[in-house]
Every structure is written in C-alpha cells, then in structure tokens.
Amino acid sequence: MALINEPGTPDAVAAGDALVVADLASAARQRERLGGKAANLARLEALGLPVPPWYAVTTAAFAAALGPDLRGRIAARLAPFAGSPSVRELDAAARDVRSWIEQLPLPAGLGAAMAAAHAARIGAGAFVAVRSSAAGEDAAGESFAGLHDSFLYVRGETEVELALRRVWSSAYSERALAYRLAQGLPLLEIAVAVVVQEMVTARASGVLFTADPATGSVHDIVISALYGAGEGLVSAGLDADTFVVDKQSLEVDRRLAGKRERLVFDAANGSGLRHEPVPAAMQEASSLSAAEVGALARLGLLVERHHGCPQDLEFAIDEGGRAWLLQARPVTTVAELGPAAGNRLLWDNSNIIESYSGVTSPMTFSFIRRAYAIVYHCFAEVMGIEPGKVRAHRVVFDHMLGLFRGQVYYNLRNWYALVRLFPGYQYNQKFMESMMGVREPAADPADDARMSAPVAGAARAAGTAAAPSRLHRYTVELPALLRLVLRSASNFLHIRRIVGDFQASFSALYGEWSARDFSAMAPHELLALYREMEDRLLWNWKAPIVNDFFVMVFYGTLKRLAAAWCGDASGSLQNDLICGEGGIESTEPTKMLLAMAAAARRRPEVVELLRASPPEVLAAQVPSDPRCAELAAAVRRYLELYGLRCMNELKLEEPSLRDRPAFLYQVLRNYLAASDAAALDVAALESREGQIRAAAERRAAAALAARRGLLPRRAVFRWVLANARLGVKNRENLRFARTRIYGLLRELLRAVGQRFTAAGILAAPEDVFYLTLDEVWDYVEGMAVTTDLRGLAALRRAEFDRYREVEARPEDRFETFGMAYHRNLFRGRPPRRAAAGSAGATPAGDAGAGPGAAALQGTPCCPGVVTGAVKVIRTPADDASLAGEILVAERTDPGWVPLYPSVSGLLIERGSILSHSAIVAREMGIPTIVGIPGLIAALRTGQRVRMDGAAGTVELLD
Predict the structure, then answer these.
(1) CB atoms within 10 A of CB 258
(2) HEC profile of 730-772
(3) Strands of 401-404's sheet, edge to edge?
(4) How far apart are CA 618 and CA 611, in angstroms?
(5) How much is the CA Rg of the chain, to the nearest whole Å?
(6) Residue 858, φ and ψ in degrees, nearest 5
(7) Is residue 428 part of a domain?
(8) Phi/psi of residue 394, each to 5°?
(9) What is the pTM of this model?
(10) Is residue 795 a part of any domain in this protein?
(11) Could you write out the DSSP letters of every residue in 43-93?
(12) Residue 431 structural domain
C-alpha cells in the first residue's frame, strides 16, 4: 500500500490506494478516495484560485484504521436502526461507535505519511484546520453540510492525529446517522477522507452563494460576511452583513447588521476559537469593502462557470485584504442551473401570444416553426441579404420559436441575431420592437454577462469584434445600407402593385384549393397538396413581408412626427389618424352579421326564437325551422365565406365555425339584446370612425399650422400619413389571407386525421394535432422512426392535458441556460431589490389604491371614456354573451371581432399598437387600450371601471 503521493513519486500515484494525497496530479486521479470537500479543493487549486495549502487523508486510511473486526462491531451495534429508531437509542449507539473509533491506533505508516505531507505542503509549526471530506459530502444531492465535526487552529503532530480520529468518529454522530436514515443512505458503507488545511487568520470571513438560496434566483450572488472566523456564521449563528450582487451588472445591494461578537483564535487555550466583542466603531461598519465584495463575486462566478451549476463557497479575508477560498460545494436547494450552464437563451411571448395564446398543439407548433423559417428566408431575400450569409446563419432562421409547457415563445436571441443581418439595423431597431410589442429589448450578445474577464479581454485583443471600426462601417455597411434603401424605395413605390399581384394570385390559389374535397383524398394526395401549398404560397410570401417593412417605416415615422411636430404626448394621435380608413376585409364578416341581426329584428317570431333558445340548440334548430328560412340561408352563406374562421384561428387544433356554429348564434343573440338598435347600425359605426379621424386631422393640422420652418412639414406629414394608412390597411388584409390559408390547412389535417382513424392508426381524428407534420408525412412516406402513432398521440395528449391543468404557466419573458428543458423553471428575472431603507414605489394595481385611483396603465389605441361593468372572457369556451359591457381579454385575434359591436370598450392585456385588436377596434371606433400588465388578474366580471382610451388608464371603481 502506497503511503503518500507527492510530486515526483509516480509509482505511488499508480498504486491508487495511497493513505495521503498531497499534490494535484494525484488528486485528479483519486477523486473517489478524497471525498467531496477535498476533490472540490483540488478543482479550485487547479483553476489557479487562492486556496490555502492542504493535503488529504484518503478513505483508504479510514478503511485501514477500522479493519474488519471493528466494522463487524459497528454493524452489530447499528443493526437495530434500519427502521425508525428513537433519538435516545440512536444517540447511545452513536456514542459507543465514536468512542471505539477515537481510541483506534493509526494504520501503519499513516503518521509518517501525514508528517511528510504536512512538511511539504504546509510547514512545521503552522496552525491548521482539520475537516471531514466524506464520500458524497458536498455533492449535488447530499451536502452533509455541518453534520461532521471540524477542528480549527490545531497545531502539532499529536493534536492533528487526535483531530483526525475525532473527524472520523463524527461520521457516526447522532446527527450524521439521522441524516443518513432520513435520506435512505446506508449506515455502514461510510467512507471518510479528511482535509488538513493551513489556517487563515481572518479579518473577515463568510459564505458566498452564486444563487440566492432563499428565493432560488440564479441571477444574484448572495454574500454573508462577518468579522473573524467563519464558524461564527456557520456554527455560532452570529449576525452578519448581507451583500446581494447582480450577476450581470455587479451592482451591490448591502444589508448591514450590527455585529456585536466575533470568533477569533483562542490564544489562551492554544487552539480553537473564542468569542470576543467587536469594537464599537466597527459594529455598524461594513465587514467587507466594495473592492472585496467585487473580488469575491468575480471569484464566485469563475467557480460557478467551471462547475456548471450554482456554488456555495466559504471564504476568508486575511489581515492583508487577500481573499482565500476555503471550500466549495454545489448549492443543493436551488432548482435551476442558471448562467453557469451556458447557452443563454432569451424567450418572450410579446405579440405572438396574440395568435397563440394558452396551450398550443404539437401540430400547430411544428407548422409555425417551419413557416417562420421559410418566411424569414423570404424576408432575407426581400432585404437583399446575400444567400451565402443566409446559409451561414441557417441555425438562426430555423430556431425562431420555442415551446414551453405548450406555450409559444419568440427566441429573442435568434430574432435579434437575424435582424442584425440587415444593414441599418441600429436605425430601425425601435420600430421593429414596437411592431413586435417587446416590452424590454434584448441586450447585444457582445454584452452577455457570461463572458468572463479573460474571454472579454481575448475578444478585445483579437480586434474588438464586438465593436466594428468606423472604417469597417463605411466600407462594408454603408454600401449595403444604400442597396437596401434603393431596394426598399423601389418596393415602396410599387407597393400597390406588389400587394395587388399577391392578392390576385392568392385568390386564384385559394379558390382552386378550397374547391377540393379533402375527405375524398388519400393521405399521399393530401401530402402532395400540402407541399403544393408550401411551394406555391409559403415560399412566395414576399408581399406581406414588404408591406410589413413598409408599415414599420411609415407608421414609426408617423408616430415620431406626431410627437415632434404635433406635440402628441399621449402617443394616441397616430392611431386616431389611421382610424376609419375603410376597405379592411377582416371587418366584413362583422358587418355581414350585423346585417343578419337587422334582418332578423324585422321578424318578431325569429327574434323570440333566438332569444329563447341557447346557441347550441339554435345551431341544430334554425337550419330546419321554416320560420327561419331567410336567416338559415344567410347563415349558410356566411359559413361558406367565413366558416373556416374561429377564435384562436391560427391554432390548427381549434374547431372552426363550420364545426361549431353555436358561436355565430351567440353573436346574433348579443346583437339582438342591445337596447339601442342604432348602435349596431353599420352606417353608425362608420360615422363614429369618421368623427374620430376628422377630429385627429383637425388637431394635427392646427399643430402643423402653428409651426414655422424651412421644411414643408404639412406636405411631408400628409405623405407619411397616407402611406401609413395604406400600409396598415394592407397589413390587415394580408393577415386575413393568412387566416384563410390556415383554415384550409386545418381542414386538410382533419382529413388526414379522419383517414388515419378509419385505418386504425389513430384513436380519434383530433389526435392528429398531437403529432407533428414530419411525423405524419414520414409515416405516409416510410421514414417514420416511430410507427405507433396511436401510442405517441396518447402520450402527447396526456402531457398537454397536464399543461392545461397547471395554473403556473411560464412567465411572459424568461431565460434558459444549458439544456432548455433541464433545470429551468421558465420564470422571469426577479426585480432588483430596493436598497435598504429606500422607499419603493407602490406598484400599479396595489391593494392600497382606493376607488378612483388609476390602478392600471396600458397603451392607448382608440379614444373614448367609458364607465361601466367589465366582462372577462379568457377562452373561446367561456360565456360570450355581451350586452354593452367593457370586454376584458388577455388577447384577441380576428375571430373575436364579431363580439366587438356588442361592447362599449376593449381592455386587452397583451398586444401592441399594431396588433389586430387595436387596428380593428380603431376601425369600429371602439375605445380601446392594449398592453395592460396584470389586467386579467386585477379584474373580474361585473366589476365597474372607468377607462380612458386616449390616456390608456383604467380606474377601478369597485
């Protein structure tokens, strides 16, 4: 048996069963014999971090000391405790076992090996700490923190050997045995290594967590520090200062304590610690300087990065101000890995939640993920990005979306990476963020807090890649920007022709495809039709992209001019100017329904029937009731034209109006319940829109007339306004085209589901939506890696049903690190703590806000002050009966528009100024506010509020 591993003794290293390890090379080869604490110290020292000199007595020495005889005695003594022993019985057994171990002679040669290691690593006469390093100790799942004994300020060979035995025996203390029983760990298979480490005479010491153990936040470092030895914090429970450090900014929140006592070397006893009072002048002062806090935080980040998970460090600051790391172990109470795991991704559901709220099916996600990749390829082509550049960034194009617990999110890191490919990104970034409805812009990747100082330094040394030189911008970016401007100018000049050609082509293709009987087609024929749709339509989706860019430029410019030239402080003038444009196709279904309601109102027997029966009964009764022949014909015509629509209409799994026409009858009932029939008159709606628009035009004209300058501001403003109106109208109509093609795809996939069900491949037609596009088509074409589609769909359905039942959905914006679905909780960054003693602002919607307080604030979209009761509608399954209430929803899409004439106002939690709910509400002249944080949680049906659509405020009156 080798006695000691030292530098220059390779034979001992090869033996692999040394009693003492004293160098890093051996530590790397014998981690299983060193225990957790020693192995972690070896890692710290290997990183070049400041670690006091140390050596380890291995588990082999412990095993040799016990021998088979003593192990047998211990086994017999602990045999009765396999169940649930009483505290008294366990304590008695622990005392017996500990006394046996503390009287053991050391194995042959161990004393000499320790003496040699001590002289080589620490030096004679130095004080040391003797601590346990049991196998499993300081591991990720079994910390054993504080369960084994430590001995400080030990000096001399005899005292070190005595402390060694006492550490060994502490593995069988009552608390250690109780912990093992509670954790289901064996009581006999205990392997203990011991660390002997030079003492640091500490001016201050403490612990550092690279994640907040109280809140679980992986974005903060928490440092607890006090004067003297760290045992005052760990064991004695003395008051300590707390420093919370933000990992990205390294900003520090200090919470200072009154530190009355400290633990220092017990000189009178010659070993150990004693309590002494802290001088009065130091009690309220910070135990650590700002520089020391910063240095410790950087050390913590370095250790965390190396280990890939949050760390719990013990440290000491010596009299010279140098920081020493005494030990490190994983934080066992934090669920997430955090930035240490790398691969930081930022997820945000701004704007996209308007189309994909709640749980979205695997089929829908698989389609939109592919659709986004194709559309952004088209976007790059439109913007003139070189094909080689697109190929080099194909990973970005293919990963624009993510799915978390069934919820769809933007991958903002990739979204920004893609947009940065476009020349002039820095000039239009704000416009793009406004269109997306992003509440908080993403940081530049070059500013990623994960970059360590050495990495950042290397980047700077390599030529400051994150900050291109001015020459680079002039020689590379400026020509590309000029090409983009010329290309965009050409597109903008021909925008009417571009959009018109697309709409004509779309109408022809849609007419051809919608005329087919999907139910009569075989699966391979449906696959061929899907590919035709993708090739002929999706890969030619350029006109909507050109128009979106057109809207981004002109609407963004209009908003700036309204503020700068017209003094619009509320941010609502540009919305009012766009109102009443007309020609928006997505409003036509609602106008058709209003006409149906007006015709029904002239037939009292029809009105009586519609009011008397619930919508589900009407859907079955009206088509065959002779009294309703005219209404039934109008309904059939409506379903022919718009029957593929529904609420949540971009989610392929949602049943359409053709599947569930009851919603249509609920809308008609709402219209007929209105006390003022004139309020539902189409001409009255258009008149209200015109009044809002005319008032805004007068306001803008007066403001422009009052300004003098060289620029023909009135002409420029009118030109920008005309183009913004055109772009917004085109945008809504092109979105309606998207709605129609989604409706066709929904029918095509339902036909696949029916065929698969008839063949016994699926249990029900709807199960097709629990598969992905590739899984369906690969099954048809012989490339499936799983052919049990019935079992796969059942597994997915069960998983997604759990997502629907869980109330705690992912937050609207969050980061993931490492593997996105592993040890990430999908929660946002916590707000920064207010500094100690500072007064925090009362949050919006605080319970302390009394009646009449402006408790909620959003983005104004359409002016008008309304006071009344609210009706909260969360999902298409909710009761949609309305009679003049203020409609409250998390988000809306075109399928909600038929409800609008029955409401007096709209309050929408999610959505941007260019969201569908905002644009259509403006067209109808309905007072509207969007983007109201916390709206759904704050309001309940029947509660009275006062909303101001121009100011964007909601006052709670109840």
Answers:
(1) 9
(2) HHHHHHHHHHHHHHHHHHHHHHHHHHHHHCCCCCCHHHHHHCC
(3) 401-404, 407-411, 345-348, 813-816
(4) 10
(5) 36
(6) -135, -160
(7) yes
(8) -60, -30
(9) 0.79
(10) no
(11) HHHHTT-----EEEE-HHHHHHHHHHHHHHHHHHHHGGGGS---HHHHHHH
(12) 345-459
